Amino acid sequence: MSQALLAGISRTTEPRTMLRRFLALDAVVTGANGLAYCLASGPLGRLLGVDATLLLGLGVLLTAYAAGVGHLAFRRQPPATGVMVVVEANLVWAALSATALVAWLSPSTAGAVWIPVQAATVAGFAALQWSALRAAGR
């Protein structure tokens, strides 16, 4: 990704600010998703055709993960190692979501749409964060 594209998305030309904003956005979206899974695992499970207990466990995991990503976002200079852990975790999440959809989940139509959309969103966060990290390193 070009730095101009990243600047347009994040409305700044400062790579470190871009990185922090992309981390913050990831934390907010992931945290909201995690809280929804925690607070409404039953209804969401029925809607998505996914076991409510699985959603509850994922919700707890996502909420804790979002807190860690948020912590990085609020650091003046997020450490590269921490950001790479987030990038790699996001890529693993996206890959596991796609694998779960094919290998062991039997979701409803809504779940069959939601799972790939969510995986693509997480992969997008990984790409934005990695690109901003690279730009900040220059």
Radius of gyration: 16 Å
Terminal CA distance: 14 Å
- Helix % is over 70%
Unreliable stretches (pLDDT < 50, length at least 5) are none
Strand percent estimate: under 5%
Put simply, the count of helices is 6
The average pLDDT is 92
Name the overall outline: elongated
Order of helices and strands: HHHHHH
The tally of domains stands at 1
For the largest beta-sheet, the strand count, sense and barrel status come to: none
Query: Would you report the number of β strands?
Result: 0
- Classification by helices and strands: mainly alpha
Give the oligomeric state. Answer: single chain
Question: Care to describe what's here?
Answer:
Helix content is 84%, strand content 0%. The chain has 138 residues and is mostly helical. The protein has one domain. α2 crosses α3, α2 packs antiparallel against α4 and α5 packs antiparallel against α6. The radius of gyration is 16 Å and the shape is elongated. It starts with a helix and ends with a helix.
